[in-house]
Amino acid sequence: MHISIPSRGRLLGCLLSSLVFIQAAEASIRVESREGVIVSGSQESTEAGIQILKEGGTAADAAVAVSFTLGVSEPFNSGLGGKLIALYYEAKTQKVYCIEALNQAPNDLDMPAVLKLSQKDREKGYRSACVPGVVAGIAMMHDAWGKLPWKTCVEPAVEVAKAGYAVPAKQLTAYREKFDLLMEDPEARAIYLPGDRIPSAGDVIKNPDLAKTLERIASDGPGEFYHGETAKQLVAASLNGGGWFSDRDFADYRANQLAPLSVDYAGKQIYSSPAPLTGGAIVLLTLKSLEQNKTATHDQPLSRERVDSVARVLQQIYPIVSGAFANTPESEKTSGSLLKQSTYAGIWKRASSADPRAPFPDASSRSAVSEETNGSTTHFIVVDKDGNIACVTQSLAHHFGSGVVAPGTGILLNNCMSNFSFSSPRAINYVQPGKRPRSTMAPTIVLERGKPLLALGSPASQRIPTGIYQVLSAVLDYQQTLADAIDEPRFHTRSRRSSSEPPNVIDLEEGFDSGTGAELSEAHWDIQSKSRRSYYFGGVNAVRFLPDGRREAVADDRRTNWPEAQ
Q: pLDDT digits over 180-218, tens only?
């Protein structure tokens, strides 16, 4: 279904009504162009990026504007206090690059103190925060592929922070969910709960302190965040709040350029995130393992047979990835070696004969990810007129992250300490000073003979790789349109966090045929129903490159995503 997009410039007056219209339609929204396109988590951020493209900027230039504006207009999902993983397709060389800027545990982390914290206390306050990476990551992209001045690219975010953004109805879920958390911090409370109440749809949220911080970063460059006044404010706030940030943490922080994981699939080359992230490996292993099923007769992507096959494969993949992918030297050297024919064949052989009720192959293995119900993450894609692509996922970990805003900065800090393992020092993702907790974020780009075919990504914690896999498969295996692939009901096989949890849970989004759940139950799956209107299944944003040269940007209406053409 095609839904027309309101013209630019009606941010505060028309944002609410347009988003309500989209929600009522319950269909993705799409735009087409032979020049630049952007799809992101908010209308303001998409329009900020389009402004930069119209000024002659590259995908990297526009990505700066989109990234920073998302921290203003979708504040509970990402921001300057969060992490980032990005793929960048350089059109002139036809190469895909990866930038990793995950958050990092403080060097002065008090291990006895952090191990004594309850799970709840690891998820809130300054002790839950890691050193942020977003600014370093987006700056690395701009340094490599940007053309416009840094200040020009940051200015749109400054303006939105000053003017404020109108809260869309769909965002109220996150505000309600974290009301108690936000009430605990005076700074967060003042910004996001004006009058000590949950905002109403259409209320305008301003962040003048963040505007000032962005102005400093715009004028002094991205290094200001790690070496200037902003770094000093963040360190002081952390220490005053019982955290462990130090000047050295910020001065030493670096984003990394890594080789993306890649596989050949159906005559295409598919690229996604490498270790220490887990999501890319899950996407690629799922595709290649299911490719081993030479007798597949699934003529419907939502059939009982297909859901059963995918779920069985995921049961095998989770412990493999969990045991191999993390921020360790060994992992980053060897994890790519899993992407080989013997691995795929072994996964499919075990999956095809396994009992869904049986334990995973390694019952002691921890989950590849935490089963956070509504992971706080966002994904955006920028394509410029020359065909360069910025495919970026950024996050605070949970909605509103740690729930604390460093005084004077307007910056909401992440709670990525909760992404570590704490149960055993032998765990590959075990918490350590200076270590980066792993993540399921999985920006993905598909090439065909060096030319882009598809770019996509999603929020939603553990559902990130399964959602991306389903859209990829729907387009590549079932020849669906991109809009239909994104609109299609989702399913998800949960990864166990401990041996006490059932291994055979499948979540089905509303929209499946009523008989499918019953048939899966008969096949020994524990079926759980999920609403499309919840944040559970995230929101896959994607751009498809059509044979005639058009670029089609599609925004998933499960969240407040917004596409626009240059």
A: 999 999 999 999 999 999 999 999 999 999 999 999 999
Kindly state the greatest CA–CA separation across the chain: 62
Whole-angstrom CA distances from 342 to 330, 339, 475 are 21, 9, 26
Rounded to 5 degrees, φ, ψ at 117 are -65, 145
- Domain shared by 198 and 274, yes or no: no
Nearest-angstrom CA–CA distance, 385 and 397: 33
Q: What is the dihedral of CA 213, 215, 216, 218, to 10 degrees?
A: 120
pLDDT in tens, 494-539: 877 667 778 899 999 999 998 999 999 999 999 999 999 888 999 9
Q: What are phi and psi of 483, to 5 degrees?
A: -60, -45
Answer whether 454's CB lies under 8 Å from 391's CB: no
Domain of residue 404, residue span: 56-256+382-419
Structure tokens at 69: 């504006």
One domain, residues 145 and 281: no
Please, are residues 417 and 128 in contact by the beta-carbon 8 Å criterion? yes
216 in the same domain as 239: yes
Looking at residue 103, its amino acid is N
Q: Known catalytic residues?
A: 377
Q: How far apart are CA 122 and CA 404, in angstroms?
A: 13
**Counted domains in the chain:** 2
- Confirm whether 434 is domain-assigned: no
Task: Please check whether residue 472 is in contact with residue 452, taking contact to mean a CB–CB distance below 8 angstroms.
Answer: no
User: Is 381's pLDDT higher than 60?
Assistant: yes
CA distances from 57 to 143, 549, 554 (A): 13, 20, 22
Cα gap 112→102, rounded to integer Å: 24
CB neighbour list of residue 89: distance below 8 Å, 6 or more residues apart: 95, 96, 97, 387, 388, 389, 391, 445, 447, 452, 455
Q: Which amino acid, 385?
A: K
Domain identity same for 345 and 413: no
How many C-beta neighbours within 10 Å does residue 533 have? 12
Please enumerate in sequence order all residues whose Cβ is within 8 A of that of 13, keeping only pairs 6 or more positions apart, or say none: none
**Between β-strands 95-101 and 491-493, what pairing exists: parallel, antiparallel or unpaired?**
unpaired
